[in-house]
Each structure stands twice: as structure tokens, then as C-alpha cells.
Amino acid sequence: MFRKIITISLAVAAGIAVHARELGPTSALMPMPASVVMPSGKALSVSDAAIVRSTLPSDHRLLSVYGEIMTRHFGDGAGVDAYIGVDTTMTGSEHYRLEVDSVSLRLCGASEEALFRGLQTLDQLLWGDAVMTASGNVSPIIIDDAPAYPRRALMLDPARHFLPVDDVKRFIDVMASYKYNVLQLHLTDDEGWRVAVEGHPELTDGTDHYTASDIADLVDYAAQRYIEIVPEADIPGHTSAVLTVHPGLGCHIADSAALASAPGNGVMVCAANDSVYALYDDVIRSIASMFTSPYIHLGGDEAAIERNWALCADCRRMMSERGYTDAAQLMNDFFGRMLATVRSCGKKAILWCELDNIYMPAEKYLMEYPADVTLVTWRNGLTPKCIELAAAHGNPLLMAPGEHAYLDYPQMRGDLPEHNNWGMPVTTLRQAYAIEMPSAANVTGVMGTLWGEAINDINRAFYMAYPRAMALAEAGWTPESRRSWDSFRRRLPGALGRLMERGVSFRVPFESFDR
Ligand SMILES: [Zn+2]
């Protein structure tokens, strides 16, 4: 018995040692870079008289970010001889090269954005190579890196549970570490309208919301971290909040008892009321002027057409004028007008991908999405069909399939605190990692969504996001040939340690460490 225990202990110890040597400075990298070479050779030593050369002006924010990284890992005033610069001969807006030898550290990027991504890698190298870092050394390494997909997004839902500006900033800080470059804010829903609209104070009167200056502050804060904020105002469903303020914008339904008893998501703005278009003309113009993103997301999901437009006298008149047999055909007219406003603001629209059925079999789009509309695939089981249709119709497609990318789903059955679960299925870390990214040219990236029904504050948002958001970050950044669950789970302990150091709430995925 004694002998057996000794044997097992040695095996475990040997296993850990081998892993540590194999991973070395890469042991906390999230996401894994496209190319990593670890040459043998002497380490670069930290000194108190290090010189940093750069193409950037000495007061550039990126140099402060670099300085903060050095200070955090090596202490005040300590650093290494380094060169940090934009290299205009490099292609790809986020392409960077990070090289460390015994003489110096060199970080070159195709753009300032690329340098920022490279600095995240440097931070993780120093964190993961803990013993070397503690002894004032940096291991030699050559990293050549660029993202597999241009858009890596997370979505917050302050409509359901409002998130104060400082909380959103903290979320931005953390997502930037994993090379995310888009934050979608779901600003309107049944439960609340969270963004000020010029000329319409009634929409936000007496409710928690972001003012124009809050938005300017957030957009600027995100931009300094090379993250774009995409605003979403959801229409024509998910509009209880606006209909509470403007009840006249809903459909005229003689027997409204059935509708009144419909659970959630029941009501829609009317397709046949010019006042709806007039209000949303103001909404879209106001949002377009506040956000610098070229995109506005207009929702388009879960419209209860049969319970609203199909029963509305005005909508039915509009149908017969156009010779329609199906009320869903009104979606083309409705979004035709809304998208014209989006285009007139110089912006592009994003919509959730809806098909002619909410389960398979589904054959076609719910409406005729114009080719300039980016679609987001989200419904469980419909992603292969959305991929096929988007490729055939030429729509850019963002991947947010519920079975992998819905970060509000519990991470394990019975997970504590399983807060307010309204029947959401489980998405484990391994399932999140297993998202399959199509290589088709119209697929622009990945988005993890944190729907807010059961996310009542920022700590809960972090707990649900991490570490699954690391898995999705790798799906969006790392080339398919370099993605590996086994590699990912071995980098997890180092990466989670960094979250712990920052005081970020996350779920420890114990099950991922089982053999
Ligand atoms: Zn109507």
C-alpha cells in the first residue's frame, strides 16, 4: 500500500514538472497566439536602467500600458531594454510580433491596435512564467500573431438589469485582456429602456439609463482599449418598455385578453403606424450620433407576429394592400423603412438571424434580409442552416449559437449560485470551447452573450462569463489548426490565477481537470 502511494505521487509530480517545462512562458496565454517559438538561449535580465525606444510619442497611452505591465511584474522603475513600434510594412490591422532574446524585447505591430493586443500577450507571458518573472528574467520567445476573425465580441444586457457605467468599464478592462474588440450593449427590451434619446426624455424618465455623456465616456474608454461598442435597440418585439410609455404604438387588437396573458416578449410595435417609424427615426439618428461604431443592432428576434400583426386591423389592412398572405411578410416593409434610416446615418445594421421556424426543419430566412445586413446566428440547432443561408445570400455572419455562446446558461447543472435560472440549458466550458467556426469568408467572428434576466450585477456577469469567455476568445482569435481543448485546459490554471489577482469573480471549472 505504502509503495503504491509513492508510485502515484511520483507519477503526478513528474507529470506536473513535464507540463511546466512544456508550457513555460505560454502557461497563461489566452487566447493561444497563431505562432509561438521558444528558442533555447539565455534569458533577458531586468534592470533599473532599462531603455525603451519607440516610434510612439513618449506620452502615448500604449507606453503607459507597457510601463504598468513592467511595474506590476518587476516593481517600480525596473524593466528591460525594449523597442515598441508600429511597422507599416506589416499587414493586417491587428498583426504583431513579439521577440525576446538575451539583449532586448521587441514588439512591432501593424497598428497601435496591434501593439495593444501584443501588450496583452506580454502581460500573460510574464504572469504565466511566474518563476522566471519572480527572479527578474524574461524567457526568450518569438511570437507572430494575428486574429483568425476580425470581430470577437461579448454582449451585456443592461436592459434587464441595469449596469452602472463603472461596472461596464470594469467588464471592458477584463475582456480587453483576451483580445476581444467588440462589446455589444443590449440597450432596450421589455424590462427597460436604457439609453437617452435626443428629444424623447419620456423614454428614460425615472429609470436607470445611460445619458449622452455616459455613452460618450464609455465609447471613449472602450476605444482606448481598442474595443468598439455596438448599440442594440430591439424591434419590433421586446418592446414592452417603449409601449408602456407610448401605448398608442402597439397593435390594435380587438381581443387583447390573449395578448395580455402572454408571458414575456408578448407585444410588438405596430407595422402600420407611421408614428412608430417617426419615433424610431429619432431613436436611430440619436444612437447613430452617440456611438462611433459603424454598426447599429436592431434586434429583430422573437417577434410574436401571430399574436400581434396577424390580429391587428391596421396591420391586416396593410397586408391586403400589399397582397400578403402571411403577416411575417410585413417584416420586409417594417425593416425596409428602419434600415433606410440606418443607411442614411452612414451606418450598417445587424439583426439576429431568424428563420421560418424556431426549430428544425427550417428552410429559409423569416424575412428577406438585405445583403448589407450582418446576421447573428443564435438559436439552438439552427446555426448550420443560418450558415448555409448567409453564405447563399451574402450576409456577413457573426457566430453566437446558444449551445456554445450563451454565457447566461449555467456552466454545470446545479451550479451554485444558480441564480434565477428560468430553465436555461447547461453549457459547460468544454461545450463553449467546442464551438465550430466556419472558414467561410462571410463569417466575421464570434460573440458570447450574457442575457440579463438572471444576471443582476457585474459580479454575476463575470461569474457567468469566465472562463467560458476565454474559450470563445480562442475560437475567434486562434487559427483552427492551433485550437486544442487539451492545451486550453492546461493553460487555465495560470489564466484563472490572473483573474483571481484582479478580483474578478469566475467559476472554477473543476470538471475540466478530470482526466
Ligand atoms: Zn398593427
TrEMBL record:
<dbReference type="Pfam" id="PF02838">
    <property type="entry name" value="Glyco_hydro_20b"/>
</dbReference>
<keyword id="KW-0326">Glycosidase</keyword>
<dbReference type="InterPro" id="IPR017853">
    <property type="entry name" value="GH"/>
</dbReference>
<dbReference type="InterPro" id="IPR015883">
    <property type="entry name" value="Glyco_hydro_20_cat"/>
</dbReference>
<feature type="active site" description="Proton donor">
    <location>
        <position position="302"/>
    </location>
</feature>
<dbReference type="GO" id="GO:0004563">
    <property type="term" value="F:beta-N-acetylhexosaminidase activity"/>
</dbReference>
<keyword id="KW-0378">Hydrolase</keyword>
<dbReference type="GO" id="GO:0005975">
    <property type="term" value="P:carbohydrate metabolic process"/>
</dbReference>
<keyword id="KW-0732">Signal</keyword>
<feature type="domain" description="Beta-hexosaminidase bacterial type N-terminal">
    <location>
        <begin position="27"/>
        <end position="130"/>
    </location>
</feature>
<dbReference type="GO" id="GO:0030203">
    <property type="term" value="P:glycosaminoglycan metabolic process"/>
</dbReference>
<dbReference type="InterPro" id="IPR025705">
    <property type="entry name" value="Beta_hexosaminidase_sua/sub"/>
</dbReference>
<dbReference type="InterPro" id="IPR015882">
    <property type="entry name" value="HEX_bac_N"/>
</dbReference>
<comment type="similarity">
    <text>Belongs to the glycosyl hydrolase 20 family.</text>
</comment>
<dbReference type="Pfam" id="PF00728">
    <property type="entry name" value="Glyco_hydro_20"/>
</dbReference>
<dbReference type="GO" id="GO:0016020">
    <property type="term" value="C:membrane"/>
</dbReference>
<feature type="signal peptide">
    <location>
        <begin position="1"/>
        <end position="20"/>
    </location>
</feature>
<dbReference type="InterPro" id="IPR029018">
    <property type="entry name" value="Hex-like_dom2"/>
</dbReference>
<protein>
    <recommendedName>
        <fullName>beta-N-acetylhexosaminidase</fullName>
        <ecNumber>3.2.1.52</ecNumber>
    </recommendedName>
</protein>
<feature type="domain" description="Glycoside hydrolase family 20 catalytic">
    <location>
        <begin position="149"/>
        <end position="479"/>
    </location>
</feature>
